[in-house]
């Protein structure tokens, strides 16, 4: 058999179903205003929700971090790669989340994907552990559950009664309820207070992936836990540092004993090189902004843009559920139509990618609009006008 021809057949099949994914090379300077192929583009697809990725204070801190610590960490955290910058960042993150967690400690990772693999393998490898996973969870949580080799129960989106029935029927010694806080393709927020009450009633952990909430939700940017004013020893929290925080990486924050277990047990933590310390140094500057007056002002502006988009966008054929977060899906349905609309926006200098299965359910292909604090009200008005026009075509 010709191996290459076999692969090419698989690629052709994806193309025939309008499922091929394409990358675009983003030029400088930074989203949302980019130059791609020599053309200016206004992006509505970045996760840089507070517009911090190009913030002069972060850029300067990154350069200073490289001067202080060099370009790379040179080792895994448990050998020689755990720098003073990592340690300071973990202390700051633990302190930041301490209103919501008992005896809080934080642990940093190179990516959110790895943080989720580590967290779920450390807690889920307990013999007799069972994972109760929300239907719309991010791929990294799904993969973490697979890697943990625990029994996994899926519960339907935001269905508390279904989850409770599963928890009641389970005799597992260790129960892990796992959920995104802000769902990455829908933008709605999980009912965390009710989920936490269920977990406390049934002796389960509540593992919250706040990738899209950390920095954007809560008066001080502490994320979903602050948004709902939650505090519990049952909480295990994951936040990412490459979205609202504007740099890269992620962290898990929880009771110190949970963190110690992850350090001792989690292969995705133990067997990988620590992120460059300069990133941790830049993240200290990012936390100063997120938790300070400038962060509050950026969140307020983002909130006003979200409100504008919800109020002014009027669609007939497509659906816009208008969630209250920076993620604003426009559900179109067919893959080819979603691609056509995305291409139409692109021709007008607006970058909004089409999201198709398997990332979302078949028949729910959509545009995933993300708003960020670096957008203006005029930017949002321009996107709304373009969408209204394309819907009528
Ligand atoms: N969880 C969720 C809900 C996400 O949306 C993402 C990234 N898109 C991740 C985890 C992974 O984070 P990272 O990009 O830092 O790997």
Automatic annotation (TrEMBL):
Record's keyword annotation contains Transferase: yes
Catalytic reaction list: 6-carboxyhexanoyl-[ACP] + L-alanine + H(+) = (8S)-8-amino-7-oxononanoate + holo-[ACP] + CO2
Cofactor(s), names only, from the UniProt record: pyridoxal 5'-phosphate
Chain positions found as N6-(pyridoxal phosphate)lysine: 243
MF terms (GO), sorted A to Z: 8-amino-7-oxononanoate synthase activity; pyridoxal phosphate binding
Protein residues bound to substrate: 21, 138, 359
Subunit comment: Homodimer.
Protein name: 8-amino-7-oxononanoate synthase
Gene field: bioF
